Fold:
Amino acid sequence: MTELPHAPNLPSPSAKPPRPPLPPAVKWLPVAASCAALLSAAMLAGAFWKAQGQLGPMLFAVGTLFAAGKEAGIPTGIAAGGNPWLIGAFLFTTDLAAVFFAYPFVHMAFDGVERGKGYFSSFVRSAQLRAAKHRKKIDKYGPWGLFLYLIVPFAFNSPLLGIAIGRITGLRPRQIITAVTGAVFVTAAGWTVLYSFVFREELRWPWWLPVGFSLTVTAIALTLGYVGHRKEKARLAAAEAAGQMPPQPPQPPQ
Structure:
């Protein structure tokens, strides 16, 4: 009796495609994050044993960093009595450790979000389509465009947002990591110098002024982004109602 060949195991139409593996550059980031975290811990230990007057400002600065960014963390840490260069270096290594630890999770989350349903998935796909319209600008400026965006003083313009933007616009992980790392260094050094020697010494500005400016610009940027998202969503809905196939977002490289 002749046996019939078995039918191949075809995936279910509703099954999600397998998650792509992490790129090699991303796999090493936890090691780099551990090194940066050890440097931050060493600075805290040094402040505890050698200069206890710096420990409070350092902790105050890092708390403000995660709440409102370096634009707020550096001025408040220095205003609390911290050494400017110590505060700047501590926030740089701490911010870098957080970015390197979080990058693989953001990378994997976007791979899932792009294929999912719901408001946030729709928002991500709409953002990708808007980025595709400006592909020439993205190809022209690439990581430099991401770097320049991240050094603009937004309170919520965090490195994690930079990672998300890099994924949306199709930059490769190595390019995103380089741009974000450079932006973390430049913003930490730049705000330390600006606040210590320009805002505080020369202009006599209070510490809350750069924070207020950053929050104002952020509110404007978030409002414009939301309006753009609503317009894109309406355009896609009109295309579907007319029976047209809405354009699909480009998939970021792995």
Remarks:
- The chain has a mean pLDDT of 77.
- The radius of gyration is 23 Å.
- The chain is about 70% helix and 0% strand.
